[in-house]
């Protein structure tokens, strides 16, 4: 059994190679640049963990883990274009550095190379792996589209927002675990449990992300909190606040969002506190974590094999940065 | 044996269904809109022809043909974004109608759905099909990148231009035929011949395309010729003219490209004629067609089975519109 850290180190060794041809450099340099920005490689490690939950690591799990990481980076390159984001991991985004057209193409090519890695899976599981990977890939695109749609809507319902988060963030975490499980020979019931463990964990992770952006300790969070509030982003906290505010609080929130005063963050947070949104978010996160752990416990696997996944859950959802 | 027209009709029946979920409509309507603009579906029919050259049609050839057509449409959606093209098939492009972000995502999703279709191939050929499809898909992206690179270069060498055309246009025609051949159980030598038949035909097709844009009969061509000349596009004709012009002709060409006078098209054509570029292009096209036919003849297949491919070649490269 490997810990999260062991698997992370082993995956880095496998993954930190050149994945693209050298020519035309005007295209492939952009791909290599972006991959070299690094990242925590959480998803591929989850694939390896999902695999090791059921058996020793199947050699096919490495290319599938790489395909997942390439897919994730493909979505980041394209999302950054759509969001007109100048920075990613404190470095220029691909479109900022190489132009939008090259960013678009380098993302396309990264998705294609992800399928090169999937195609390394030996025949028995290949169909099943591509089927789950593709369903998830489409869902992630749907989540991004809904996120963009919501930006243009005046109000978003909480259940719509949760569904968007599920698609945009959770399903890839869930599918990473399940893809590993498939390659570990897991049965249908165990596959569903590990998927739902990841899905619930992903939602808890996003609740925490929204929470930290509002309430995080700048020293641990690494950046000034309040970015989402400044940008009027619809987050778990804001959607709940708009839903539960009384008339006066609602008026205050809407005025703050429109007028952007200097003390906007502090005043929005004060409304959040008055509405009990911070406590509500902490409870909601706990609810999803509890549900995740229930699925973990229900898996018909010896308990000791579940230890790294418990570690992962704590790593993901109890961090303060 | 089916004719081009038979296969085209059969493929239309197979392909003219909904390929995408209905929700979120804000994403998938864009995909359905674009597919409904139609097109000649040449590439999937080439896949079916490549298949029938060796055997009765393998049921797996239908989804592979669909994957090829979806891939082709994915490239068109993304190319139109990069080229800022307002129209495609006389209708608004996806980004013109739905915005750039949705166009980007709807292209991404179309590529993913192409792999859903590939994944319908039964196990025996799946790895080989994905390997060839992916190599080709990357090459098409490389071709698009080179095309954009060339736009920024002052001069482009003829051999560089041919390589770009090969990547951007020819390899997908070639691979469509070869994918069909793979599913028909063709051996390696025959696979290479049918690929090279398609590759050479593709270059001949592009030479003709460039030629018709300059010299086409407007009544048959469907639009006023001279578009490439007006836009200073580097085409077979222009690259050759710049290469073979004498000092006075070169000066005239460069002035025309810079000053864009009203009679630009006629005057550029007159330089083309003086340099013998029209005749050169006709000869070059014949050279590639001859090479294509050599590969066709060398295939170890009864001659009558080659008839539809001869038809196809004539359809592609002797058209006047």
Automatic annotation (TrEMBL), chains A, B:
The record's keywords, sorted A to Z, are: Magnesium, Metal-binding, Transferase
- Has the keyword Cell membrane been applied to this entry? no
What span is annotated as the signal peptide, if there is one?
none
**Entries under Gene3D superfamilies matching the protein:** Farnesyl Diphosphate Synthase
List the cofactors.
Mg(2+)
What does the similarity note say? Answer: Belongs to the FPP/GGPP synthase family.
**By what name is this protein known?**
Polyprenyl synthetase
